[in-house]
C-alpha cells in the first residue's frame, strides 16, 4: 500500500538511551527517556505513546511506567545516528538522507577574536560573554548589563552554534536578525559553524527576563538535495512546521508554518491534517530541547511529554486511513545527565497508520536516513540516500 500523506513528528531531543558510539562523545550513561521516567517513578502517564509501542522499543530495559504492550498499534524501533555531530542540523539532515560527515566548527572556549571583532564592527555594538553557557543563565547573569550598555550577548554550547541574545527593548528583532544573517554569511567557509541562532528575550530586569518565540536559526544550506527537494521536484507538497524550515534554510520546503511552542506546533499539525494534500508534513517540537533538556529540568520535561501525549491523541483522531505517522527525535538531551548539552543517543521510531491492524519491531536502524528512504519509497521515488526503506516491513504484515 502507498500512503497519500506522511506526517513526521520530531520530538526534539527525546533520546531513548546511549548510542553505541556514545563513548566518543563522552555520553556513556545518557538516557533521556529513561532518566525522565525514573524521576517520575510511574507517575508519568503517556497513554497514547504507550499504546503505539514506545515501551516496546525498550522491552529489554523497560522504561519506568512506560511498559511494553502486547499488541502495539504502531511499528516500533530505534535509530542510530551516523553524522559526525549531535546537533539538530545533523539529525534532521540525516533523516532526510544527507548525513553530516565532516565535523562542524566547534568552539568550546569561545569564538576567535577576529570573528568577534567582525561582529562588533558590523553591528556597532560591543560583544560580551563569548563562552559556553546555558541560554537562561546567560540572560540572568548578563541581561541587565545588556540593558545598560546595549552590548550583544554572544555565547555557545557543546554544539556547533553561535547564539546571540538580545533584549528587544534595546535591540529590535529586525536588527538582531540582520546581525545574525551577517554572522551566518561570514562563518560558512572559514569557521563552518552549523547554526547562528537569534535569541530574543524581554523583561526589565533578571527577575522577569524571558525568551520569546521569535527565535530564528540561520543554518547552513544543505549542499545537496535532500528528500525534501526530491519530493518537491516530483510534485509532492512539502510542509515544514516549527523550526524545520530554519534547519534546512528553507531548501525543499514549499509551505512554512511558524510555531510558538510544542502545543502550537501540534495545533498547526492537526490543522494541516484537516486539509487535503499529497506529500509530507514535517514538524519539529523544539520545547523538549530548548526549555527542558538544556535546562536539565526532569520535572518539566516529563510534564511536556504528558502534554504532547494528550495532543497526540487529537492528531491520531484526525488521521485518515491512507496516512502514515512517523514519530522520532533528532538526538538526545538528557535532563538527568551531566552538563547542559545534547547527548549521543538512539532515537525512538514509531510508524503508525489507522490502516494497521497491529505493529511489530523494526529493530535498530543503522542510520536516521532510513526514515527518508522510507518516505521516498512510499511516493515511488528513487532512493538517492544511503538509508534503507522499511516500507515493505509495514506493508508485509498488513498484506498477510
From TrEMBL:
Its main location: cytoplasm. Pfam families: Metalloenzyme (PF01676). Residues 4-382 form the Metalloenzyme domain. It comes from the Bacteria. One of its GO terms (biological process) is metabolic compound salvage. It is found in: Cytoplasm. Keywords: Cytoplasm, Isomerase, Manganese, Metal-binding. Binds 2 manganese ions. GO terms for molecular function: magnesium ion binding; manganese ion binding; phosphopentomutase activity. Isomerase that catalyzes the conversion of deoxy-ribose 1-phosphate (dRib-1-P) and ribose 1-phosphate (Rib-1-P) to deoxy-ribose 5-phosphate (dRib-5-P) and ribose 5-phosphate (Rib-5-P), respectively. This is Phosphopentomutase. It comes from Ligilactobacillus murinus.
